[in-house]
Amino acid sequence: MEDDRQPSVIKQICGDYFFSYKETVNTTSPDVSQCFQHTVLVWLPCLFFWLFSPCLLCDLHKSGNLPLRWGTFIIVKIVSSIILSLDAFFLLLWAVYEWKIDDRNVAPVWFIYPTILSLTTAATIVLFIACKNRGVITSGVLFIFWLLLTICGLPEFRWWIERAVDS
């Protein structure tokens, strides 16, 4: 879909086009729009997490294992989750700053996606600690969430690399 055929709701949320066939499919260097990166590619892993975290909570409730000791791997998982949660929270603060202080017109997607991402990563921190306390070594739900988040983050990572190389 091109810019002039985008639904008005998507334009209101993103402030820009959602998907461009020319930039994504019909090109030698495919790229997705920032709106697509900050909606579908963030919301998909978060939606997976919120849909399947009750399964993990049920497993935690049924677990009769002894608590795990603090290990390097558990600490790295929790610290990386804290860093990502803080990063998303600071993106939200930056959007509020641009909207209130700089008096810029900021699209709602710049408020929505960091909020969803920071709440989801904060919930993963809680679940990592709960898994540790209930003796659950690994969780398929958390693993798949992080895998999806990593895969869905690759287009934005590529965008940042291209932006750094071009400047």
Automatic annotation (TrEMBL):
**Cell compartment(s), UniProt:** Membrane
Q: Is this entry keyworded Cytoplasm?
A: no
Q: What is this protein called?
A: ABC transporter TMD0 domain-containing protein
Q: Which UniProt keywords apply?
A: Membrane, Transmembrane, Transmembrane helix
Q: How does it sit in the membrane?
A: Multi-pass membrane protein
**Residues in ABC transporter TMD0 domain copies:** 28-159
Which Gene Ontology cellular-component terms appear in the entry?
membrane
Which InterPro entries does this UniProt record tie to the protein?
TMD0_ABC
User: Mind telling me which residue stretches traverse the membrane in this protein?
Assistant: 40-58, 70-97, 109-129, 141-161
Query: What's a Pfam family this protein contains?
Result: TMD0_ABC
Q: What is its main location?
A: membrane
Q: What is the lineage of its organism?
A: Eukaryota, Metazoa, Ecdysozoa, Nematoda, Chromadorea
